[in-house]
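Exam review. A common question shows you a sequence with its structure tokens and asks you to describe the fold in words. Practice with the pair below. Do the first one on your own.
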Amino acid sequence: MRIFIASDTHIAKVWDRLDRTVPRVLNPNAMLRRLVSKVEKGDVLVLNGDLIDYQDAHYHGGRERNRTLLLEILERCRGDVLLNLGNHDYRKRAYNFAIYGLTHVNVPERARKRYKSAIGHHKFRWFGELGSIFGRHHRIRSGHPKTQYARRDGADLLLLDTGFDAHHRIMYFLHPKRWRYLWRDPSACIGLDQHQLAKVRGAAQENDRLRRAPGRPRPLFILVHTPPFFTTRRLKGVVAAPGFQDRLGQMYHARFLDGSYEFLETIAASDRNITVLSGHTHIPRQFLLDKRTRILRSCALGEINRRRDDSRYIKFITTPAVGGIDRPHNTKVGYVVYDPRTGFHGKTLQDFKRRRSPLLRAIEKGAKDIEREINRRVELWNRQQRRMRRRREQRRREDRKKRR
């Protein structure tokens, strides 16, 4: 049994229209269909938040929803499907692409203006634009639990919903400890409530009972859409305060506000083997937190696999997005697969690295050929100089012998 962990699918009906209009566009709908085709019977597919880009399927509203398209794609999945919510799942109205742009789906600003009439989503809606920023769909939770706990052959899965965008709560801008994070990361989520934190404590304290069970202790995978901390730069080693004080949180962005320190304290005090998987940033990163020394550092996925059975370390994995990129940090869309025998493996669906024009490639090729020819002639000239130097030395030795 394998566990497919993907995040940020951003399903919307507008992407299929863009795919027929704009060349080399990132179509999140097609990426999810490709991912679903790779899941076999007996596998588990976990979509960790931002399932859809927004609720309304059309720019000016209506009853049609993007969630319908998501369910149609997931009906073809042969394995089990687990869904977790993200901040985009609460956004109701469609975006104005003239304001927000389309760089996250590999459409630069020049191409967006060129295909403006075919793309649409550019007419200014006055007060409707505020709805795309602060509008929230209140019925999203109907039939969808806020916390899910699932047991599988390879691991235990705890799915936690970190909620909607924190800027939807105006009071957060007045809070002295929260407005700083909203200023640094406007897409931060509200976080975890006390009921969810109680679920985390209950799952983290199950290790005593699992130790008495036969076989190897089962690892615990905690899936939250927004990571508790994140940084685009590599960390050689940061000593976390015993209480995860506020000064540590100031170093990072893309975090949830409520319950973040309580969440870190709970899993750091547990003896269970815990891995925290998140998304939201569209940039794959991995971190290790030593429970004893409280040293936090970034690492590669291979080191995560080497320590996957070591309960001393908390493993943090931020998966790449299926439906978005973030230049220049990441141009690949993909997912992570967990195999109980070999560990975690990152998979790429497509790389949207910018292609160079044929003229530029020809110029670069010509420049390389010229450089190669110059180096060849310089080497030939050096050989001739060395040969002439040896001949002069030989003549001098012969002249010395004649004089003697």
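Now try the second one, then compare your answer with the model answer below.
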Amino acid sequence: MKIPIYHVDAFTDNLFCGNPAAVCILPTWFPDNKLHAIAKENNLPVTAFLVRDSNTFNIRWITPDYELDICGHGSLSAAYIIFNYLEPAWQKVDLQSRTELLQVFRTDDLITLNFPAKNVENISLPLVEQGLGLVPKEIYQHKNERCLVIYDTEEEVRQLKPNMQILKKLKHRGVIVTAPGQNVDFVSRTFYPQKTISEDPATGASHCLLVPYWAKRLSKTDLHALQVSERGGEMFCRYQGDRVLISGKAVLYMQGYLAMGQDTQVKDSIEIVPYNASWPSEAAIEIEKLKNVIPSNCIVDIQHVGSTAVQGLSAKPIIDIQISAKSLDEMKIIAIPALQKLGYEYWYDNPDTERMFFAKGLPPFGEKRTHHVHIVEPTSKHWVEKIIFRDYLISHPEVAKEYEQLKIKLAGQHTFDREKYTNAKGEFVNKILKLAMHPEKK
């Protein structure tokens, strides 16, 4: 299985600047150990994982070391991919994290995050002074989670060379240093002593503390900020009491796919087995389940298709069901969450725009494929051709036997490559369709 992955530089419009993040589009959640393994392999400050749920995207942010409760640049990167590659007509998207719903919207080339404001309290932390190597003006904290360290000048912040071994002794996960900016309202840097990547290049989450502090200190709600790490980052912020709006730009560096490995490939291998007399009843049971989750006024017809619908024909042990729907656009809203409840995974990046495709049991989400569902409109060639091909094989047993032998041969040649297996059957399938639809040209 190929999992789409994008590499984005966030809080910048220049490559090799800002904070890099990976964005992975998953059909459903992988086990936690798999998610952490992917994030560690990516070795970027964060990997944002997205799973679509109708018009909302569920999101998780995982670093090479641990999972985050909130992540600004990971959210900005995810929204950038949604707005530019998945749903380019959208101006707003909801990201559902494990703890809250985050609203993200765009205006021209700026993407705005709506994050919770976090207030701070004054504290004395000698370890911070030792670890940073420069006595600050003030130190604050937010719930033992992050320190906010105040300096007088931008130059002091830029010149800091922290001792991470000392800062690791803090119970706080993050250390934010900040000062008034020379050409902006404020500058900052953020350190995570426990992380493999100890300085974060551009940190949205830190601005949940920074913006309330500077808004009150400067008596203004709209703030322009720079994160003065080596890569740098630029933020446009607005303080709204209990919320902080953090806006920034992003740029795509790279896109591709994750290959989920030989273990998944072996599990999803092509196997032709003798005909099983229970296949028709299994299909009938599954069709009833589908009818129970999809409104009847959306469906024109449902039929059992494919080789398991042809009595006596050896086949892959996968029940294929085809649904004729009144509207594919309507089904994209209704069918995806409905079929996910039945254990199906939806193929989001299917290049065939006339067909929606779902699979149940697809590795790595299950041990073996058991069912496929194809949703098409009544006028689609898919609807017509699958039924014509099935019916021709049923009425011509000698042709079905020829097809069976071809499938067994091709399964041996392309055991781990479904695309090649399917393409190799194409000539035979097209020949039979011509015979079925134009018998006079036999």
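Model answer, second protein: The domain at 121-239 is CATH 3.10.310.10 (Diaminopimelate Epimerase; Chain A, domain 1). The chain has a mean pLDDT of 93. Full marks require stating both points clearly.
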